[in-house]
Design a protein that fits this description.
Among the domains are: 228 residues, nicotinate phosphoribosyltransferase (Alpha-Beta Barrel); 91 residues, Aldolase class I (TIM Barrel). 41% of the residues lie in helices and 18% in strands. It is built from 16 helices and 19 strands. The strands form 4 sheets. Strands 13-12-1-5-3-17-18 form a 7-stranded antiparallel β-sheet. A hairpin with a 2-residue loop joins strand 12 and strand 13. It is elongated, with a radius of gyration of 27 Å. The N and C termini lie far apart (56 Å).
Length: 460
């Protein structure tokens, strides 16, 4: 059995991808087709998405292949004939992919990927691309909302123990760092991705010693360089006073206490009282760190109330994007050998044709984007760049710190109204005249086909 699912995720697909492909194969339909991957709608209060998982998606697309154990499994299902299974043995993606850079803030309905290739190849990429990009984009965007709410205080990802499985914990930590978190508690994510790791101590540690003061002294003995003490196990104010005692002992050794952590109670009032205690004792350099089921709404509220908090540890609601369970990313056919394609279903209309997205800037800030046909000329910066040609990467995978720097730079240039915690307006994506005209043409075409079909059924 395959053990490294990260290297080859070809079988991580929906069955209907294989049955559709088998039908295309049986009917000799493998013309060039173009698909767009985009997210239909922003969740309540969100002003934009941060495109994430793009680098992983490129890796998946360019490494897709069926191994012999996959062929054997599919044969056992009794669904596919020998000719189709033999075809899968040599299956590769040989087309091209255009993508926005990972870390780019975008509006809904913006193509994050544009995939063109033989129909069977382009179709089979759908599930793995959506699985990769939907989750990571959701977590990156949620994390960035928390980071924006907390600024200038820092945010650390504490989500590992509440993540929905190990892959979510890993990809979520990566997404959160790209979106502005300064560190993660996830040691494996730190090792694999080069993210700074951060942690304090648990209440069980404090309770493992006869007194809170002794627990602080024990921790400072082992970690004398800028330790952090959890001060709310018994009484937060007394915990702060005990932290001062050990802080002074550290100063006598030429060391410094790094921070104290609050994990319960009224964070605003407690942080003010703790700050006063620290300052009164010459420990004004000691930071106050807070956790306790936080999200962007709670962080913004305590900041408005004047809390004296320098950093936040956010777990459950960062790594799960609570209350947003999922985002509606889709993969739609937009063009094939017969020309542009459109979906006209109510509330699920797609934009036809090969397209490009142009970013318009005014006075150093992003004003809006324009979705246009590839053949149209728009004065703006094109966001979709070729990343795959003839099934191969045309540029190396970008480093996580490069992606992070780019992401934060781009977010800084987004309109302020899109970064509000409780915003009512999202970033503006405008549709070009060429697309609008094409939509009208295709709507008329399909309306005419419907009328002809109805007339035909009446004469019968």
């Amino acid at each position: 059995m395959r053990t490294n699912t990260e290297q080859n995720r070809t079988m991580l697909t929906d069955l209907y991808q294989l049955t559709m492909n088998a039908t295309y194969f049986d009917n000799g339909k493998n013309d060039q087709a173009t698909f767009d991957l985009f997210i239909r709608k922003l969740p309540k209060d969100w002003g934009f998405f941060i495109a994430n998982g793009i680098e992983d998606a490129i890796d998946s697309a360019t490494n897709i292949r069926f191994e012999e154990e996959d062929i054997s499994y599919l044969r056992e299902q009794g669904l596919f004939d020998k000719k189709y299974l033999d075809y899968l043995r040599d299956f590769r993606f040989t087309g091209e992919i255009y993508a926005v850079k990972e870390g780019t803030p975008v509006s809904s309905n913006t193509p994050l990927l544009r995939v063109t290739g033989p129909r069977m190849e382009a179709q089979l990429l759908e599930t793995i691309l959506l699985n990769t990009i939907n989750f990571q984009t959701m977590i990156a965007t949620k994390a960035n909302r928390i980071v924006n709410a907390a600024s200038p205080a820092s945010v650390v990802d504490f989500g590992l123990r509440r993540a929905q499985g190990s892959e979510a914990a890993m990809k979520g930590a990566r997404a959160a760092f790209i979106a502005g978190a300064v560190a993660t508690s996830n040691v494996l994510a730190g090792k694999e991705y080069g993210i700074p790791i951060s942690g304090t101590q648990a209440h069980s540690f404090v309770m493992s010693f006869p007194t809170e003061l002794e627990s602080f002294r024990a921790y400072a003995k082992t970690f004398p360089n800028s330790p952090t003490f959890l001060i709310d196990t018994y009484d937060t104010i007394q915990g702060a006073r005990n932290a001062v005692i050990v802080g002074k002992e550290l100063e006598a050794r030429g060391k410094r206490l790094g921070a104290v952590r609050l994990d319960s109670g009224d964070l605003t009032e407690l942080s003010k009282q703790v700050r006063a205690i620290l300052n009164e004792n010459g420990l004004d350099y000691v930071k106050i760190f807070a956790s306790n089921d936080l999200n962007e709404y709670k962080v913004e509220r305590v900041k408005i109330e004047g809390a004296k908090i320098d950093g936040y540890g956010v777990g459950t609601e960062l790594i799960t994007a609570k209350p947003v369970a999922a985002i509606p990313g889709v993969y739609k056919l937009v063009e094939d050998e017969d020309g542009p394609k459109i979906k006209l279903s109510e509330d699920k209309r797609s934009y036809p044709g090969k397209k490009q997205v142009y970013r318009i800037e005014k006075d150093g800030q992003f004003n809006n984007d324009v979705l246009a046909l590839e053949s149209e000329h728009i004065n703006g910066t094109p966001l979709l760049e070729k990343v795959v040609e003839n099934g191969e990467r045309v540029s190396p995978r970008r480093d996580i710190r490069e992606i992070r720097a780019y992401c934060l730079e781009q977010v800084a240039k987004m309109p302020n109204y899109t970064k509000l915690v409780e915003g009512t307006l999202s970033y503006d994506l405008r549709i070009s005249e060429g697309i609008e005209e094409l939509i009208i043409q295709l709507a008329r075409k399909h309306s005419s086909e419907k009328s002809q079909t109805l007339k035909g059924s009446e004469t019968e």
